[in-house]
Amino acid sequence: MKVMIELEEAKEMVLKATKPVEHEIISLVNAFQRVLAQDISAPMDMPPFDRSPLDGYAYQATGLEDMPLLLRVVSEIPAGTFSERRIMTGEAARIYTGAPIPPGANCVIRQEDTERDGDQIKIARPLMAGQNVVRRGEEIKEGELLLKQGFYLTPPAIGLLAAVGWDQITVYKRPRVGLLSTGSELMDVGQPLLPSKIYNSNNYTLRGMLQNAGCEVISIPIVSDQIEDTLAALEKMADTDMVISTGGASVGNFDIMRHALAQFGCEMFFWKVNLKPGTAASVGLKGQKLFFSLSGNPAAAAVTYELLVRPALRKLAGHSCFENKGILVKMANGFAKGGRQRRFLRARAVFKDGEVWADLASAQGSGVLRSMIGSQLLVDVPANHGPVNPGEILQANWIEAWEN
Ligand code: AMP
Ligand code: MG
Predict the structure, then answer these.
(1) Which residue's C-alpha comes closest to atom 14 of ligand 1?
(2) 181 CB under 6 A from ligand 1?
(3) pLDDT for the residue numbered 404
(4) Which of 50, 180, 225, 274 is spaced 20 to 30 Å from 304 by Cα?
(5) What span, in angstroms and rounded, lies between the C-alpha atoms of 345 and 335?
(6) CATH class for domain 2-21+174-316?
(7) Residue 401 above 70 pLDDT?
(8) What are the CA-CA distances from residue 250 to residues 246, 278, 282, 295, 365 (Å)?
(9) 128 lines ligand 1 (CB under 6 A)
């Protein structure tokens, strides 16, 4: 087992060991937050026929008409209907938005640009052939590749699939992620707090993060710092694709998680990553399953989840892109404590003068969960960097954050 490695190496090791979950077929109505496990090509043209984008009159323009042009209205075509009546010279069809262009017509004049008198319309300005006609296949051509395997299904992507009639799609199964909160000091909410105890917040933070990533969370009650309890808890994680624990990760006598993982049969990849908060993370592999042991400190757990677990989780879930988005930010404020270790500072992203500024959360301690709230950035301060100065430009990871 390696001790104290760089985040990049840690990520490479976990990504290499992560295999995507299996596939399943679902109906499109359940597609939100799922990841495509197939390439999707368009089975049809969209729109499927030449159509009118507005309410007006369809006729055959030559560009040579004398103005004003008088036309006789010979048919009416509301959306959802069609007319086979050919439009001849001197004729027009009353047409509505979304309706198919009738044979013979090649343009649509806006209702607002006509004067109607009985079954006659008067047009003051000529149109060109093709004007105000949306061509069949203009948006999507039959056979065209629309979405690739590994695509995370966003609402417009799901809408696009619906637009071309997809009903059943092959997606990756939702990863089943086991969540363990270890610590003899922990109690669950809903009970009065006993002396020397604290409430288990990590379970709730990580549960939400996992749910937001489209995972199914399998969690068991709080696990004590006893190795037997920890081993029993690990046994209960049999039906999961990945396991994340918090607590018991550091150097104390009761920090037993990595020992428990080894005893459980994990091949331990590493213990400790050169970053703050969250140094005391370790990762092991048993069979195909990765076990992440994160620090119990609430901010450390959340930060290492974002930096280390999330890329692996994305690969597990079938995503084609595993990386956090990196951006350059300008520091809105300084941070005095530059240290030997690389540090990730929580910050709010502020857009000013065409740049992204990082406005640091006031408390950066590894136990301070509050500063994760509203932080969209983890500013990457290299090891041995020294104090961070206002105005300095640094690399940052864009993390998930809820707008408030
Ligand atoms: P540990 O990683 O076990 O050394 O824990 C580090 C700090 O985080 C200690 O102050 C713990 O009490 C606290 N802690 C551990 N687990 C949790 C949890 N699930 N929720 C909130 N705080 C925790
Ligand atoms: Mg502990």
Answers:
(1) 296
(2) yes
(3) 63
(4) 225
(5) 9
(6) alpha beta
(7) no
(8) 11, 10, 9, 7, 16
(9) no
